[in-house]
Amino acid sequence: MTTPETAPTTPTAPHEKYFAPLPVPDAGRLPHLQQLGDLRTPYATGPDIDALFAQALTEVNTWHAERSDYYGSVWRAHGEPELRTAADAARLPLTHANFFKTHVVKSIPDEDIAAHFTSSGTTGQKSQMFFDSWSIGSVMRMAAFVLDHYGFVTPGQPANYLLYSYQPADGLKLGTAFTDDFLCDMAPVNERAYALRAVGDEHVFDPFGCVETLVRYAEQDLPVRLLGFPSFLWFTLERMRALGIPPLKLRADSFVYLGGGWKGHAGRQIGKTELYDRIEEQLGIPHERVRDSYGAVEHGVTYAECARHRLHAPVWSRIFSRNVATLDPLPYGEQGYLHCVSPFMTSVPVHSVLMGDLVSVHPGSACGCGLETDWFEIHGRAGTSTNRSCAVAAAELMKGAA
């Protein structure tokens, strides 16, 4: 009789750590935040969910008011309004995202900082954002829960990756680079390439390398995942066409996940439908496998497109549109600045942040995808240089409100 061989130990798959328990910094002070963060259904709705959100938001608001001199003074100056319902989130004091470009504000001691990232703006001062273990863990866990909801977490299927973001380099602290590398844990990496290559102390877009990579990937029987800035993907498609490269046929289960906007190329920005059509035409990836997303280093909640390409708010956040002149909350359908509220961040008081993007907010029922949470449409991004820039659009709205 032979002795059976011991089965080799299977290492933990990279994605599993994002679904593991994640404790809040203080279980006694933040019990409802723990419950909210542990929700695995990212688009759940109902009275119980709203009550839990309000309780978690109250806990985090108190947390920051007690630990941040800045936020404590702001909170007291606003009369400390009660947060009894999820809708009361609109009553929180607003902090503009640009504030964090010139101010360092923390609610934790330096020894508790687990990660430090900056925004990815192409010019000017960048926001500095600090994370404790709970906050950075929540950023990744929320994204993993959302992608899993849409069926894009496939631990049993290796993929080839082309990241339209920054190749890792010493001292690189961009939040977008961290996010795209994290997303590679959602399916095992067979091969990974970067569109923005590190050359000395800068990053350089390599369009020929991107084309070569896609042609090589098309010859392999593996799904392909394209992640990152849409502008550089578009430039790759344009380069393919200019070189006379015929359409590629990537595997049908390939996946495109875009984010970060067009950055320094807003003047060349094209419509979403045109971009998705070209992806399907030249790469063979259908619209339903192409998703845009919205996020910011100042607000790490994942807003990923649904099947109808609408950006729904997940269970961990509430969204509002604010009048560009008065900052008052606006009804559904009216354009204003995006106001995001989420209690996940315990390291910096960004639980109520005003973004520079112009949006209109709509009820979930107006989408038709089956999700019931509110969604928003972006009408202009801050810092763009298109004919109808965000600043111009805001000025027009202010004129109309006068």
Indicate the mean pLDDT. Answer: 87
Order of helices and strands: HHHEHEEHEHEEHEHEHEEEEEEEEH
**Which structural class do the helices and strands define?**
alpha/beta
* Termini separation: 91 Å
Low-confidence stretches: 1-11, 382-402
Helicity, in percent?
A: 25-40%
Number of strand elements: 16
Give the radius of gyration.
22 Å
So what's the overall shape? globular
Q: In percent terms, what proportion of residues is strand?
A: 15-25%
Number of helices: 10
The main β sheet shows up as: 6 strands, mixed
Main features:
alpha/beta, 10 helices, disordered C terminus
Could you characterize what this model shows?
- Helix 1 packs across helix 2 (47-67), helix 7 crosses helix 8 (230-242) and helix 8 (230-242) packs across helix 9.
- The strands form four sheets. Strands 1, 12, 13, 14, 15 and 16 form a six-stranded mixed sheet that branches.
- Helices cover 29% and strands 21% of the residues.
- It has helices at 31-37, 47-67, 69-77, 99-102, 133-149, 175-183, 207-218, 230-242, 272-283, 390-401, and strands at residues 95-96, 115-118, 128-131, 159-166, 189-199, 202-205, 224-228, 255-258, 290-291, 293-296, 299-304, 311-312, 318-322, 335-341, 352-362, 375-380.
- The chain contains ten helices and 16 strands.
- Helix 9 (272-283) links the parallel strand 8 and strand 9 (290-291).
- It is of the alpha/beta class and 402 residues long.
- Residues 1-11 and 382-402 have low confidence and may be disordered.
Map the helices and strands:
Layout (H helix, E strand, L loop, with lengths): L30 H7 L9 H21 L1 H9 L17 E2 L2 H4 L12 E4 L9 E4 L1 H17 L9 E8 L8 H9 L5 E11 L2 E4 L1 H12 L5 E5 L1 H13 L12 E4 L13 H12 L6 E2 L1 E4 L2 E6 L6 E2 L5 E5 L12 E7 L10 E11 L12 E6 L9 H12 L1
Helix pairs in contact: 1-2, 2-3, 7-8, 8-9
Pfam family, one: LuxE
Organism: Streptomyces luteireticuli
Protein name: Acyl-protein synthetase
